Every structure is written in structure tokens, then in C-alpha cells.
Amino acid sequence: MTPISEGQNRAPVMEDVAKLAGVSHQTVSRVLNGNPNVSARTLEKVQGAIVELGYRRNTAARSLVTRRSNTIGVLASEMSQYGPSNTLLALQQAAREADYFVSIAGLAEVTPETIEEAMLRFLDQGVDGIIVQVPHAGIFETLVKLNLDLPVVAIGAAGTSGLSGVAIDQTAGARQAVEYLISLGHQRIGHVAGPAGWVDTQARIGGWRAALDHAGLPEGPLLEGDWSANSGFRLGREIARIGDVTAIFAGNDQMALGLLRAFAEAGISVPGDISVVGFDDWPESEFFLPPLSTVRQDFQELGKRCIQALLAELDGGARDGASVQVVPELVIRGTTAAPH
Amino acid sequence: MTPISEGQNRAPVMEDVAKLAGVSHQTVSRVLNGNPNVSARTLEKVQGAIVELGYRRNTAARSLVTRRSNTIGVLASEMSQYGPSNTLLALQQAAREADYFVSIAGLAEVTPETIEEAMLRFLDQGVDGIIVQVPHAGIFETLVKLNLDLPVVAIGAAGTSGLSGVAIDQTAGARQAVEYLISLGHQRIGHVAGPAGWVDTQARIGGWRAALDHAGLPEGPLLEGDWSANSGFRLGREIARIGDVTAIFAGNDQMALGLLRAFAEAGISVPGDISVVGFDDWPESEFFLPPLSTVRQDFQELGKRCIQALLAELDGGARDGASVQVVPELVIRGTTAAPH
DNA sequence: TACTATGTTGTTAGCGCTAACATTGGCGTG
DNA sequence: CACGCCAATGTTAGCGCTAACAACATAGTA
Predict the structure, then answer these.
(1) Which of B58, B228, B287 sits opposite A283 (nearest CB)?
(2) Which of A252, B107, B220, B313 falls 20 to 30 Å from B319 in CA-CA distance?
(3) Is the pLDDT of residue A3 over 60?
(4) CA-to-CA distance for A44 and A31, rounded, in angstroms?
């Protein structure tokens, strides 16, 4: 097994390969770039020399002249949460398949300033394009205002004016969930939403509302949490006190977990007295008490589509603000039943 | 031949700044690199010109000549899990503070081949150093075998022969947890471990065993899960069937969640009949039924130390295989009580 | 035969930056 | 005042690669 790097000796450069193969360095370059105008004999010689020397092309030199870094910047907030971290993973895999590197910038705090700073860092680094995974409302305007001369794909944003967007259709997902509750016979369906100012929050509220409107049902209580199980717990106690609903659509699985705990403590049976549906389908939701009915999002697909959209802009140069939607899927488990 | 019109679009280069400031490009370079031998007057002129043109230094050109990319590669498996994703976030922040970019490679499958492939990609990219966040046993040997001519810091590995290691002292954490159970009066303490072949599994088993040995207690049952709540649930049922323990130390919080569910279904009260302690302290653990006692790991600190270790190797050139340990903290909540 | 089209290879000129050395001018010293 | 010294600046030569063009051989066409 050849060592990966040549230890003390200077790493071989194209010229070394060329000499060994008895050709010019440009021919080596042609082989490396898959130029068809290379004879089979030469190709073989060059490839042999490359292997023999363990030659690897210098990215910096290549980038300098091509003005391409083969790197995609991913700007992410809430990086350690379930959705974002899974999207990040998928993004990374899709990028690798397309032979791109992924550079990440995690935002601890989301403000126009921190976003701009991160973007400037990406520019400094010379990334070819940027994927923005920041689910805050207003992110879109912030990005447009920066007026970057680079392809940008925003996750969760509708595409307009120069920015492409790829999103999971959370409105449709929320609507599916609520429609399912309605089909079970529920008539008073509340929503424990995420914090205002999140794209996801708005979309999920929208889906909940649309389903109720469509069925001609009145809106149940709309409560605002902060995605945490803690807030779900707090709001669950409030709901238990007020009564008056037979089903709750929770903005995510964590808050649903808080709800379940609050209801259990209040002696309210789930799904006997109240049905609960979450959103996300994180792996543990299956093991809540009872197992949580929820809406599953396909992050893998989301990541793949993002990279596709970005590469399309990179190659085609089209900046048409295309918008792609991935549709989520309702998963029915043990927290939903017909009202009594 | 110089182009006739210097198109507005062309990004300014150092020479443009130099011209505007009335100096040579080298002086601009000196300003940018903080060279002290620049007069105050010149410094000001150059900085003014930089701002006026919105000049940003070209990283590729810089890397080409300095042979530094200012990029750190992070190799991670299980990227979307709680611990790793938090570590990744911390790593990224610490790197940014030191003015380094972070390039990630997420491993879908951990084998010597996938690791080698990812490492080769990092080499191609020209990273200055690599941080490996792959908690599988044997990762260390795999890395050493690759014989990389690059600083590598492995998370969770003890440092020897050319590789530095930074780890959370999970053995100490596990020991703390079990000693606490012993202090409550428990005498039959089982362990639901993670899958064999994980560094973390081994360390936590080690801590559990050490505490029992030290107290002169017999080892309770040792069961192997796979980190998932599902496996915890399965093993919980088994424990419920066998009985014979008054406390379980779970290898992580997810499995603890599964245990809680299994015990609830079996009519076993926690902490009345059995005490449970988890490991990780993920945010939702506080909202389990009852709130989970667990061991908190400081990923922020871990990330910071990793970057420190890597930068030390980068700057000092020392490859001393230093080993740093971060000590975790026991968090006592509602799943632990004295046995009856 | 001459002449063009085509495929294969080599040569040259940078990409934008930093390192190394060269040059200048002002200062203190003998 | 000649001397060296040092701080401030300029000049030159690449880093390793690709793009553009030049150079040639070969084959096909008039």
C-alpha cells in the first residue's frame, strides 16, 4: 500500500508526472481533465505515472486559474437540531457525489450582521455557491439585500428574484395531519405552534388553518411555543386547564413530547381524551408514551434537491429563482384516535 | 495585452489597491499580513483603498504560495446524533474564532475504505489539519495505518504515536453516575450499554465496572443495546421480566427513554421500584416521565479543546500525541431515588 | 499533387499572491 | 562627512495549474 503522502519528499507536481510519462505537463492536464484528444497510448502512460508517483492535483493552483473552488458553503443555524443536522448530512453527501467540498458556517445567533459576516467569509473562501439553511422569517429579504454575485439556494424559502428556494412543503404536511384528525371526527383542533418568526411556524399554522377552513370548522386555540419540550409542557398544562379541545396538532415532536407529559400529569388520556400529532418524526417519537403520530420529512431528498438546484445554477448560469417542493408524509401511531 | 476596458465586473486585485493607494502591491500585502514595517501614513492610505474598492484577498492565490489553506477538515460519523452534531457546531465556532474554515465529510458508513476515501478528499482539498469524530473502536488504528503527513486530532481516542486525542472522560462520568446510585443505597446496578465496537460504549462500561468494583459490589446484568430508544425499550422489557435490579445505568438518554417506556408498561415505578440514570443530557431528557437523571457532557468545551490541540500542532509542529480530557457532570433529576 | 480538415501534442503566458532580495533615505556614530 | 544601520518600500521570481494558441502529423478531398 502506497503511503498517502510522500513524507519528507516534495509532493509530486504535474511536471514530475509529465517527465516520467515522457510527455508535456499540458498533456497530463488533459488526461486529468478528461480531454478526449489524447491517444490511448499516451493516456495509459500518463495514468501509470500518476499512480506510480501518487500524484494529486493541487487544488489551490487549479482554483486560481479556473476561478472555481469546487466548494459549496452551507450556512446553517440551529445546526444541532434534528431537522437541520439531518439536512446538513444529506447536503454533504449529495455534494460529495457531485465532487464538491462542503464548507460550513454555523450561526450561533441569527441577525443580518451575523449572516453578512458568514457570507463574507464564504466569499473570502471563494465558494462557488451557497446553501442557506436558516429557517427564520425575513432571511429571504436579508439575503436579497446582500446582493451577492453568487448562486444562492435558500432552504425553506420560496424562490423569487434571483434566489432559488428548495423546501419541504410543510403547509401540505400540516394540512394532511389536521385533515386526518378531522377525518377521525375531531371538531375542536388546537395548534401548538413554534415561535413566531420562523418560516416553519408560519407554514405549519397555514396548513392547520387551511384544513380547518376547508372543513368549515372553527379554529381551535393557537398557542405559541419555542420548539422545546419545555414549552410544550407549559402549554400542555394550559390546555389541560382550559379543556375544550379533542385534538392538538403540535409544531414539532419535541413540543408534542411536552404535551404528552403535561397531559399524563393532568390525568388526561392520550389518545382517549385528546389526540396529538407532531411534526418531524424524529427517531425517538416512536417510543413516546404512547408512540407519536407525526409528519415525516424527507431530509435526504431535500438535501439532494438543494444540491441539484445549486449545480443547475452553477452550470447553466440560470438564476431563475426556481422553487422546488418536497412533500412530507403522515405517520400514524398511537396518539391519535376518534374523539368520544 | 491589457484589456481595453477594465470591466466594472472584474473583482479588484491587490495591484488595483496598490495603484489607488499609490504604493506597490507588496506594500498592500504587508498591510494585509500585519507586517509592522509600514508607516502609519501608508497604512491609512492602503486601508482606505481597500475599503473603497471593497477588495478581498484571493484565497486560492494565497494558498498556492503559502501552502496553507486555512481550512480544517472534520471527519464525522453519526453526524445527526446529538453528541456529534453539537461537537461539530462547537468545532466550527472555535475554528472560526481562529480564522479557519471548516470542511466537513460525513460518513454514512464507517469502514477503513470510506475513511481513507474521505481523508484523500481532504488531502486533495489541501486542508491544514483534520479532526476525526468517529467514535468507533479501531478508528485509531485505521488512522495510524493511513500514515497521513498531516496533523490529526481524534476525538475520543487516547493520544499516542503521532495522533493527538481529545476526549470527554466518559469513564469518569459513568463512574460518577454509578457511585451516586451506590450512595443512594443501591446494590444491584445493571448497565444498558451501547453497541460493542464503540469507544463510548467501552468507556462507559469501564466506569460502571470501576465504581462497582471499588464499592465491592457484584456486577449487575450488562445488556447491549444500539443507542436507540427502541433497543432501550426491548432491553427494558427484558429487565422487567428478570427483575433482580434496583437501578440501571443507561449508556445514553435515548435508551433510557426506551427503558422508561418499558418500565411504565410493565407497571414498574421509576424511581420507586427502579432508578435510572442516562448519559448525554440531551435537552429533552428534562421532560421525560419522570425527568431523567443523567450525565452532562460539555461539547462546547470539547470542540474548543480540539481546535486548540490542532492549532498547537499546526503552529508548533509538535506531534506529541497529547491527550486532553474534559470531565462531564452528573445531573440529578427525577429518575433516581433510594431503593426500598 | 496540393490543400484543407482533424486529431494530437507542445509552448507560452498568465491566474493573484507571498518570499526573498534590492533599493532608498534618514539617522546616529566616530 | 563618510560610514553603517535600520526602517520603509519596491522589484523580481515563482507557487502549480489551465487556456489559448502554435506546431505538427495524418488522413481525406479536390
Answers:
(1) B228
(2) B107
(3) no
(4) 9
Backbone angles phi and psi of B132, in degrees to 5: -110, 120
Listed in sequence order, the residues at least 6 apart from A259 whose beta carbon sits closer than 8 Å to its beta carbon are: A192, A232, A233, A235, A236, A239, A248, A250, A276
What is the rounded CA–CA span in Å between residue B16 and residue B53? 8
Does pLDDT of A7 surpass 50?
Answer: no
Size of interface A-B (CB pairs under 8 A): 148
pTM for the whole structure: 0.89
Closest-lying nucleotide for B62 based on CA to C1': C17
A4, A58, A125 ranked by CB distance to B120: nearest: A4
Condensed to tens digits (0 to 9), the pLDDT of residues A161-177 reads 567 888 899 999 999 99
Neighbours of B308 (CB within 10 A): 15
Nearest residue on chain B to A96, alpha-carbon basis = B105
Query: Residue A158: which pLDDT band, with cuts at 50, 70 and 90?
Result: low
Q: What is d(CA B90, CA A108) in angstroms, rounded to the nearest whole number?
A: 10
pLDDT value for B340: 82
Between the alpha carbon of residue A144 and those of residues A112, A121, B263, the distances in Å are 11, 17, 53
B57: contact with A, CB 8 A cutoff: yes
pLDDT at B316: 72
- Domains and their CATH numbers in chain B: 14-57 (1.10.260.40), 70-168+299-327 (3.40.50.2300), 170-297 (3.40.50.2300)
Cβ atoms of A292 and A335 within 8 Å: the answer is yes
Residue of A nearest to B63 (CA): A60
Q: Do A69 and B86 touch (CB under 8 A)?
A: no
Query: What pLDDT, on a 0 to 100 scale, did the predictor assign at position A144?
Result: 85
Rounded Cα gap, residues B200 and B254, in angstroms: 15
Check if residue A41 sits with its Cβ under 7 angstroms from strand C: yes
CA of A112 to C1' of C25 (A): 49
Can the peptide bond before residue B290 be classed as cis, meaning omega within 30 degrees of 0? yes
pLDDT of residue A104: 95
Chain A hits for B286, CB-CB cut-off 8 Å, are 229-230
Whether the per-residue pLDDT at A31 is higher than 50: the answer is: yes
The number of CA neighbours under 13 Å toward the Cβ of B279 is: 32
Which pLDDT does position B4 carry in this prediction?
Answer: 31
Residue-level pLDDT at A102: 96
Instruction: Decide if A303 touches B, using CB distance below 8 A.
Output: no
- Strand C: which bases are under 7 Å from protein Cβ? 7-12, 14-20
Ranges under pLDDT 50 in chain B: 1-8, 159
Average pLDDT over residues A280-288: 86
Q: Which residue type is seen at B18?
A: A
B333: CB within 7 A of chain D nucleic strand? no
